[in-house]
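Progress note, sequence design subtask.
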């Protein structure tokens, strides 16, 4: 009897302890659920990962985008959106946002842009170039999320256009433009030229080449013989002697200078006997192209203009 009485006396205490433990467990579970709900993006939000591996979440499609890089303006133009701010003067070209677009200019050096200009444009998203504007992230994200893009091929540019469609709620327009550009490149690739080409830029003594790991270089590799590997840098330095070793049939040249009256790069190199001996130079097949479009465009509009020039000169 003593034993039974003792067990009976202990039973209420055990039940109370069990109840308390259950209550604590339920409370902990509720706290965990609340924390999970708080961490979970709101319904209808958009989450993407940029080219630096950073996850970007928007509560709703972006409508006010500041562009620190021209591929941003290019993609927004494709989906019918005007940026609220721009950095590259090419944005004002009628083929992109246009001269009458209501946009704020972002001042400052490349990679050292004036964050105040960005803030005054009140964007809900900022798009920049990875490898150049990474250092702005902390300052920019005090005002808006920063998405950094780094296209290494024309296919990356197409993928970015689709991402912009997702970020801005214009998926249908982005898909239409992206698919149309892919079809154009694939059609051009079916008639791939056997001519050897080169896209180069700079000035005498400081020349560079668009390797196959750049949007322009990868595009030329689709439609022509383009033997320019990346090495350690997709935008590789090149000497005239290296160009002569390949002796390309057609050279697309971009002269870089702040002056609009820049002498064509081919003419600036004409005094070099090695350059003068190139087959393309002798045949008049050094084609001067728009440096801004070829060097900074990177998007599908710009690459379409590149393809226009390439197809025109490969068919001659």
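Output:
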């Amino acid at each position: 009897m003593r034993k039974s009485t003792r067990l009976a006396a202990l039973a209420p205490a055990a039940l109370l302890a069990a109840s308390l433990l259950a209550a604590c467990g339920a409370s902990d579970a509720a706290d965990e659920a609340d924390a999970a709900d708080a961490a979970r993006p709101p319904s209808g939000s958009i989450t993407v990962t940029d080219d630096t591996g950073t996850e970007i979440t928007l509560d709703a499609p972006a409508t006010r985008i500041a562009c620190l890089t021209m591929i941003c303006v290019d993609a927004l133009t494709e989906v019918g959106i005007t940026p609220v701010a721009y950095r590259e003067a090419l944005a004002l070209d009628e083929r992109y946002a246009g001269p009458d677009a209501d946009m704020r200019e972002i001042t400052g050096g490349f990679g050292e842009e004036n964050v105040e200009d960005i803030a005054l444009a009140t964007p809900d998203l900022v798009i920049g170039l990875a490898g150049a504007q990474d250092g702005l992230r902390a300052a920019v994200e005090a005002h808006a999320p920063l998405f950094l893009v780094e296209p290494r091929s024309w296919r990356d540019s197409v993928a970015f256009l689709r991402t912009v469609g997702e970020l801005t709620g214009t998926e249908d327009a982005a898909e239409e433009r992206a698919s149309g550009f892919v079809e154009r490149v694939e059609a051009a690739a079916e008639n791939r030229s056997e001519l050897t080409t080169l896209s180069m830029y700079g000035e005498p003594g400081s020349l560079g080449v668009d390797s196959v790991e750049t949007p322009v270089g990868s595009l030329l590799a689709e439609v022509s013989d383009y033997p320019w590997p990346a090495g350690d840098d997709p935008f590789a330095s090149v000497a005239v002697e290296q160009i002569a070793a390949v002796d390309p049939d057609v050279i697309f040249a971009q002269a870089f200078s702040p002056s609009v009256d820049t002498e064509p790069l081919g003419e600036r190199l004409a005094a070099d006997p090695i350059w003068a001996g190139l087959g393309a130079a002798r045949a008049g097949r050094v084609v001067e192209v728009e440096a801004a479009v070829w060097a900074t465009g990177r998007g599908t509009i710009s690459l379409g203009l590149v393809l226009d020039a390439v197809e025109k000169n490969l068919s001659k």
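Residues 2-39 form the longest helix (38 residues). Work on this subtask will continue into the next period as scheduled.
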